[in-house]
Amino acid sequence: MRFADxxxxxxxxxxxxxxTDERVLAAFAKVPREVYVLPQYRDYAYRNQPLPIDLGxxxxxxxxxxxxxxxLELKDTDTVxxxxxxxxxxxxxxxxxxxxxxTIERLEPLSLRAQGLLKEQAYKNIHFRIxxxxxxxQKAYPPFKEFNKIIVSAAATDIPAGxxxxxxxxxxxxxxxxxxxxxxxxxVTRTAEGFSTSQHGGCTFVPLIxx
Length: 211
Description:
By secondary structure, this protein is an alpha/beta fold. Helices cover about 30% and strands about 30% of the residues. It is globular and about 50 Å long. About 45% of the residues are buried.
């Protein structure tokens, strides 16, 4: 079966699993996951499961990504901070849904590979940084100090303060919180009065490592 046909089936599966945001589903219909998986796993690109990438990391399960993106309530005017570039697949989805994406990866080989793939896919609204994502976006260009939306693609033992302070008023952050092999997906909303947090089920991510 062609990758395009497999992609369409994946989108149907996401919809059956409860994803209702039409913009999120359209992004999954457009972005070719096979580009971002390792060559030896391309035949499994559209299985709804995580897959290994280099350096002991993973490309997340499509359904888990879709759940996180739906909770972000993304708008096409948003500036988004992504902690954990990984394969670049989620970065591509975010780039379809938001105006600007700033993405941080601590592992240089992963970041460089993702940068190459995303440039080949002609994305021009993604900015990259190699460094400690738990500290937030610390780069002269672009000089963003706050973000409408933040997505953390690694498990934090607590909501990272360095990232949370960069969430704009009326912004939303989605972050898995916990340790070991099981975490809880947290949705953090910032208002003029402060922060509120809600929890949205279990998940499993690689740990967020801060230096």
